[in-house]
Amino acid sequence: MQKSVRKGVIYNKERSMDFAIQTNGFFVGYNSGKLRTYYLTNYFHLDFGLLEHPREVKLNKNFNQGGGFFSSFTYGKRNSLWNFRAGRGFVRYFSEKDRKKGVALGVRLEGGVLMGILKPYYLRVIKNQDGILYIENIKYSEATRDVFLDLNSIVGASSFGVGLTELSFAPGAYGRMGVMIDPGAFEKYVRALNFGLQLDLYPKRVPIMASRENPFAYLNFYLNLQFGSRK
To answer: Cα(first)–Cα(last) distance of the chain, in Å?
Structure first.
């Protein structure tokens, strides 16, 4: 008996979620796709995630001489950069899989615009007023530079909520190029692994660090798990 082979477009639409880590940060995303042919899917993409400077270093500071209190912070960090990205892309599969087993291999290309959201990074520092020590939340500025970069004064990072009312924005563009490994490329459920390179590009330097040079472009390796369904 001759074995049947599945050909043609079985499904028309695809929706999926991305859960990704990158060399310096992470993102979560959403994809809405259209299956154009058996091997080609075009899609619209949204994601939101954290992008860190490649030279960021987290430190732990023991400011209690009794050794009982530690607080981590990133030395020299001026702002946290969160990116909201929106773009379009396509997946092109080059290998065919069996109906019940096997893996499809393809490429994923994507690009679009982004909006960088800068949140001031606050530190808790020890200050001395008339011989009385107290702790204050400060952000980087020319006036606070000396204290902000003084390891002897830093207690640790402030809570995430400090600075949320002082956001600024940095528009830009992004692109991704990756390899798709999909054991269910032609089935109802999306479950895929893709990895590759991601470029975030800004028209001016984004002030993430005070103690380091801030580039215009950030190139990262990313690893992404994708889950969803087709219909």
So the answer is: 30
Q: What is the pTM of this model?
A: 0.86
Instruction: Specify if 8 maps to a domain.
Output: no
For every one of its 231 residues, what pLDDT tens digit does the chain have, with 9 covering 90 and above?
444 444 545 788 999 999 999 999 999 999 999 988 878 999 999 999 999 999 999 898 765 544 445 578 999 999 999 999 999 999 998 876 544 456 889 999 999 999 999 999 999 998 888 878 888 999 999 999 999 999 989 989 999 999 999 999 999 999 999 999 988 666 788 889 999 999 999 999 999 999 889 999 999 999 999 999 988
Strands 132-138 vs 25-35: parallel, antiparallel or unpaired: unpaired
Specify if 94 maps to a domain: yes
Distance CA 175, CA 193 (A): 18
Range of the domain at 210: 13-230
